[in-house]
Amino acid sequence: MKKTPEKKKTGRPKLDTLKVTITELDNEGVGTAREDNLTALVQGAFPAETVVAEVEHRGRTHIFTRLLKILRRSPSRTAQPGCPVELSCLGCPLVSMQYQAQLQFKQQRLERALTALIPIESFSALPVLPAVDTLGYRTSAKLVFARQREKLLLGLYRRGSHDVVDIAECPVHHPLINRIATIVREDVARRQVSVYNPRHQRGLLRYLLIRVSPDNNRALVTFVCHDRDYQNLPKLAKKLIKKVPEVIGVHQNINSSSGNVILGNESIKLLGHPDLIEQVGDIRLHIAPESFFQVNTRQATRMYALITDWAALSGRETVVDLFCGIGGIALSLAKGARHVIGIEIVPEAVRNAKANATLNQLSNCRFIAGDAMTELERLAGTPDLVTVNPPRKGCGAELIRHIVALRPAQIIYVSCDPDTLAQDLKQLLAGGYQIKRLQPVDMFPQTAHIETLVQLVAG
């Protein structure tokens, strides 16, 4: 039964609070406890902690709360809070958890998802590969402009809402990102540049995109605007490059839509270079402002090295790389293969991949813009290796059927979601493949996300 808050003598309602002991973390890293036969969700609380939380909403199966006070601390909690806005931003639910405990949670999260769908004897998960850097590792950021009672905000959406949390310094962002954001915030406020209001669909600035190359400490900055601007943006760009010479290019993207899509279809280079060149292992990559690329470059380098090592190519193989993006995995394998075919549905990413093949002087690569399933059907012959790096929804049953029908000698699967990985592995095992190696990789410290590499061989 829903509790009705009592009123104090002042007439203000008394808080509806719960005192609970957290039993476990859910898949998103949120503390859970049982209360009145419902599951109470307490962001920022860890197992074995007794806490007081304010009830924000009571649903049919869950109680959504806000952490007020920790009465008994978990031994895995850090001595000091990991971030001053962790309970309002909610982007890094594990930021106040000791790192070894984070790795243990991720290992258990992965194994729980897998054993729910595939036999435990069919795999042996290696220990999670820890991150080299647990803070300051994110090399790209998408920050939101907003105004609140005339105050300029530049930060992140509170998870699950459209409320903007002002972020002075994010602990997981590369230090150069934080420095750039500070300078931009100050200059926009000083010049009183208008900020987009989604309710009224007016105002100029919508988002600030920053991409950093940790290899050479250079950055690209993109202002996403509701309209073209010939007055404020050039001044902001010049001031930024003057104050932060590490910024080698400033762009404007026009997004006049009323929806939640961040980027529009039109981009204009205001000053400097069109892209970054990033060294990832032994390959170099053109990374444009709109390119999708791993946000943890150091871990991506280690992951590509693992894939190359597992593939053990002799120079005679044909490789098909599905969801190839800008070509990172395909190009890493190309030096050891006879021929590599990359398939990607985003045309701009394919153009980047072709440019990256040229940059690395690799002539044995072919990149195709198209749907993975459609293009697989058109391929002649049987590839020796198929690599897949799908989005969170996984490959899906139909694509897996097509891959199994090709019967490659081995498959290397790069997953960013344990649940969809389990679904796809179940089908691959049923199709006659065996798991040879399974390596979790911590790409996103302080969060609940886990990346997983799986090598499968034909039985």
What would your notes on this structure say?
There is one protein chain. The protein has ten helices and 22 strands. It is α/β, with parallel strands linked by helices and 459 residues long. It folds into three domains: 17-75, OB fold (Dihydrolipoamide Acetyltransferase, E2P), CATH 2.40.50.140; 105-132 and 296-458, Rossmann fold, CATH 3.40.50.150; 140-279, OB fold (Dihydrolipoamide Acetyltransferase, E2P) (Beta Barrel). The strands form four sheets. A seven-stranded mixed sheet has the order 9-8-7-10-11-12-13, covered by helices on one side. Helix 5 (297-311) packs across helix 6 (328-334) and helix 8 packs parallel to helix 9 (397-406). The longest helix is centred in the first third of the chain and has 17 residues, at 99-115.
Number of strands: 22
> Strand share of the residues?
25-35%
Form type: globular
Main β-sheet: number of strands, strand sense, barrel status?
Answer: 7 strands, mixed
Approximate helicity band: 25-40%
**Regions with pLDDT < 50 over 5+ consecutive residues?**
none
Mean pLDDT: 94
CATH hierarchy class name of the largest domain: Alpha Beta
Structural class: alpha/beta
Oligomeric organization of the protein chains? single chain
Radius of gyration, in angstroms, nearest whole number: 24 Å
CATH architecture of the largest domain: 3-Layer(aba) Sandwich
Output the strand order for the largest sheet. 9-8-7-10-11-12-13
Integer tally of domains: 3
CATH superfamily of the largest domain: Vaccinia Virus protein VP39
The name of the CATH topology of the largest domain is: Rossmann fold
